[in-house]
Amino acid sequence: MPASKWKKLTREQQAAYRWGLIVAVIGAGLLLLPGRESWHAAGPPNIGHSKIECGECHVPAPGNFAGQAFENIMHAVGLSDSETHFIYQPAGNEQCLRCHEDPDNRHPVEDFLEPEFATARQAIGVQYCVSCHQEHLGVRVSATQGFCRHCHEDTEVSDDPLDVPHSILIADERWGTCLGCHDFHGNHERKVPELMSLVLTEEQIQQYFDGGESPYGHRRLTVIQTMRRSSRSREKPVADPP
Questions:
Q1: pLDDT by residue (tens digit) across 179-209?
Q2: What residues have CB less than 8 Å from 62, skipping those under 6 apart?
Q3: Whole-angstrom Cα distance, residue 178 to residue 170?
Q4: Distances, alpha carbon 201 to alpha carbons 52, 59, 183, 190, 204, in Å
């Protein structure tokens, strides 16, 4: 608060501000005690992340608690043009791929850096894991269905095996049917159906997004092995090759 405005406050108002600041500092201190990370998390961990410590995905933000708090307070009252991340920086692709890197991924994020995907990058940030898997929502996938439209509006399928051709589905903008056949990352052993009557419904896909059982079938073993290797590499150092 500018000094000129502070001087215009009554003695009681100034005391209220001081006590409010003291209470805020004490509360923040309690939140930062070891073992209290869940108290200041942005929300519940997503499916499969309940046993992961905050520091495994989040890098500490620059500076210390006092500096971060001061910078954000100054920004909140309009005395600074910028704010800083508080305690931890947001997780990004690097942190996600430590556990979820899959050499057989059908849609690896690095592919979306190509010029042809510029529109999709602008529309839904498809080059970032967290654009579809926003954390602390207690779900598996946070994106809404239908995102395939941003890359596949011009898709043509030769010798189309489906009883309702893809050209018709695209023309009718039935983008909710894509994931009914196709597992986006290819994480599961699944035979793509050739009959629309066997396609997974949008309700089945949504319950999976929300954290339910997979309607796609068994997960591929290579994906599980990749995640286990990543987990072990974090638990103990890996020796340099001879």
A1: 999 999 999 998 999 999 999 999 999 999 9
A2: 84, 85
A3: 10
A4: 32, 39, 13, 16, 5
